[in-house]
Amino acid sequence: MSPLLAGLLAAVPAVQVGLERVEADGAGLRGRRVGLIAHAASVTASGRHAIDVLRAAGVDVRRLFAPEHGLRSRAAAGEEVASGTDEASGLPVVSLYGERTKPTPEDLAGLDALVADLQDAGARFYTYSATVLLALEAAAEADVELVVLDRPNPLGGVLMEGPVADAAEGVPTSLVNRAPGPVVHGLTLGELARFANTRRARPARLRVVPLSGWSRSMTWIDTGRPWVPPSPNLRTPEAALAYPGTCLVEATNLSEGRGTRAPFLLLGAPWLDPRPVIKAVRAQGFRLATASFTPAASPSAPEPKHEGLLCRGIRVRVADRRAVRPYALGLRLLAALRSHPEFRWVREGAWLDALTATRRVREALDRGEPAEAILERDRPGLAAFAEERRAALLY
Length: 395
Fold this sequence. Notes:
By secondary structure, this protein is of the alpha/beta class. Helix content is 30%, strand content 13%. It is built from 13 helices and ten strands.
């Protein structure tokens, strides 16, 4: 084999996404009038954005829909996304993160299909899963087909962790807990849409353009694809592996690393001695080390916790990506931190309730229960979900 050919083959990722199917043959969308839900990570391996790919494939893109962080993924977490016009394409943009989060019948009027091409993080509280499920509802109500261009789950398709969402818990429904299943669900967005659709009284006309070359054992590194941050603070595949656990620190008065070089991989506070925490926590696939950092304001973190203050804390690194248990890591960290006299919950614990879709986790931590006992209670729900999701699996 010539060096040139070998180089070309090496540049082709092991996994092709749904958008690349559109690029290759149109994926049944050619000539159709569509709305597109997209963000900065809605690209091919060569970097072509979904807007350009669909247009070049002969798809009539009529309007764009922007999830949290906006069409170009520049808005900070929680920052309202405005509707308007996309300067690059000239297309109208409808916000799905602000006063409303679901397309209206007027938004879908005149469309043959609504296309969703979003890179998810594999955690229920990452809001893109809820955005796709609300789009599914809107499409069903308007009798418009929803087409999901599938992308890999960066955590793979085997790992499942955390409590299963239960409406009976009485936690207010929001974008961070709307999706069914556990915190770490092990599904692609296409599979999640299939799972939710079968449970609708009036199913949507749903079609998933599947991945090629992806298997459930693959984490992001195995796909061979470049990482494009789907949100401003999820900057690396390593951070994505830790995120379902380290994001739980958002619910406390410790920094989760926003305003630093490594969000979700740096955790700490000015008052923290990290050494006993590191000693107490079973990392399971991760390696923890002491660190110091000073959060600074930036467009991606306008008001980070402990801004301008030197924080003592923990640097999280992935030691074995196939052994990681991020949610367990996050819960163990909370259990170890909870006894510190300076520790406080954000919103008196309501934010952790929202992230976990239950009050039981916070209440158990407040009682001083060990993390292992809390994790053990999740097992029956995880086993049941593993069976329930089976019919929705594509890979």
